[in-house]
Design goal:
The structure is a single chain. The protein is α/β, with parallel strands linked by helices. It has a single domain, classed as Rossmann fold, CATH 3.40.50.150. It contains eight helices and seven strands, in the order H-H-H-E-H-E-H-E-H-E-H-E-H-E-E. The protein has a seven-stranded mixed sheet with strand order 3-2-1-4-5-7-6, with helices on both faces.
Length: 217
């Protein structure tokens, strides 16, 4: 559930800090036309990923969960022209739409879209990556985090999205795989002594959720 004030605040700050962006707007339009679910990060969240990547001087970025490439474009802009984004997407249709969106944004040479089960793709990757963004199948969040950590350099940043789920993460008795997977990830994060981490709750145009932010020791 979203509240009008949350979206209004997003719109207010977006109008001040996020100028119109034809490539990003075209990506969202293409995603909708292709029938992709409207679960992309918000513009403010996309800008946050961009700023995080810029702040640490990222040149290699790993993304788990491409969807239509909206967040991928933000990340690729942060590392271009010398850098590289490797992004994993299970659905071939989603990957095709993302590839077109990324090319339209002029970033085809910066992004490597890997199609197939993410765990298989991650098994075959070699690090180090400077930043990892995990926004995929929530039931496997703990496994994706383990791979992201394995592939990250010391000082690297790992961001895991959708870890609050409107507060449903508090339900220890649920049989919702997304929630139980998120709880498994939270337990894995808490037990991992190779990172310093926190979780930030968010509200806005995407409702009530949050993200985990970890820095590799």
């Amino acid at each position: 559930m979203t509240e009008p004030a949350w979206s209004a605040v997003d719109d207010f700050y977006g109008s001040l800090l996020l100028p119109e962006d034809p490539a990003l707007e075209a990506a969202l339009t293409a995603n909708a036309a292709a029938g992709l679910p409207a679960i992309d990060v918000s513009p403010a969240q996309g800008k946050m990923l961009y700023l995080l990547a810029r702040a640490i001087g990222a040149r290699r970025v790993l993304e788990v969960g491409t969807l239509g490439g909206y967040s991928t474009i933000w990340l690729a802009r942060a590392v271009a022209p010398e850098g590289r984004v490797v992004t994993c997407e299970l659905d071939r249709h989603h990957a095709a739409v993302a590839t077109e969106n990324i090319a339209r944004a002029g970033l085809a040479d910066t992004v490597d879209v890997r199609v197939g089960p993410a765990l298989d793709t991650l098994d075959g990757l070699q690090g180090p990556f400077d930043l990892a963004f995990v926004d995929a199948d929530k039931a496997r969040g703990a496994e994706y985090f383990a791979h992201a950590l394995r592939l990250s350099r010391p000082g690297g940043v790992i961001v895991v999205d959708n870890v609050v789920r409107g507060g449903r993460v508090m339900d220890a008795d649920t049989d919702d795989a997304a929630v139980t997977g998120t709880r498994r990830f939270a337990e894995a994060l808490a037990a991992e002594d190779r990172v310093d981490a926190t979780v930030i709750q968010t509200v806005g145009s995407k409702g009530h959720d949050g993200f985990a932010l970890a820095v590799v020791r």
